Amino acid sequence: MSLDPHSGVPLHRQLAAALRARIAAGEWPAGGLLPPSARIGYDYGVGKATVQAAVTALRAEGVIDVERGVGIRVREPAERELVSVPRGAEIEARMPTPEERAELGIPEGVPVQVVTTGGRVRGVYPADRVKLRPR
Amino acid sequence: MSLDPHSGVPLHRQLAAALRARIAAGEWPAGGLLPPSARIGYDYGVGKATVQAAVTALRAEGVIDVERGVGIRVREPAERELVSVPRGAEIEARMPTPEERAELGIPEGVPVQVVTTGGRVRGVYPADRVKLRPR
DNA sequence: TGAAATTTGTACGTATGTATA
DNA sequence: ATATACATACGTACAAATTTC
Fold it and tell me: Counting one residue from A and one from B, how many pairs have CB atoms under 8 Å apart?
């Protein structure tokens, strides 16, 4: 349950793993709030920066959302729309640029899928809201 | 060139944007090293934690790699292998779990593409090394 | 309306550890 | 062995957003 400072694994990674496991186990429901970060730090006996690092990592994984003044929320899976992709197209995935994140309203930790045909970009899709299907 | 503490935009975001732009402009070649983080902090007049936050963000975007004891390296685009995807399959993208990152050797800031048919997972591909093509 | 409490964000500094050159 | 460079981790202070009273 607790963390081991002598395990060789950094505390912030241990903490991220612990929280990830508790979230996966359903300890907090999707859309629900984790305890305040100060409480988490107290419970696990680590400082603020360590909690911050763990939270940053889980955000980058798309596991949580953090709302300032509110708390740390378990991300809810979004509805996924089916998008057909023609034969011969190519599908790549990558992290969005900040501009794309702003324009498309993409949360942190969510990649984009890019569909191209003949080198021309046909679509850029937030990966949490689409499933691509070859037609 | 420099940062504005009064712009309302956090310094670490401004710094990340500045470095992103300089990288995109080719100021440092792919595979090359940025200046040491201490130098970056000195040049931009910000503290160590601020540089760290900017570096963490650029890592999560897949723009840079950080090698301990070496420096901050501009990531080189990997060779992309073409993978055919059958009709009727579904393609999703997401950030990998830490286990997947370890098993597949996926760098930070790189999503995975997941191909399923009939709900069964047919493949999990590091997105920096594949392009999927509907066949 | 507004004040207070809660909670996260930003940013600094300091010290120590560890990998590489 | 020494120097360089990033990583970890602590603490502190203040700012900003939200909720509650």
Answer: 92
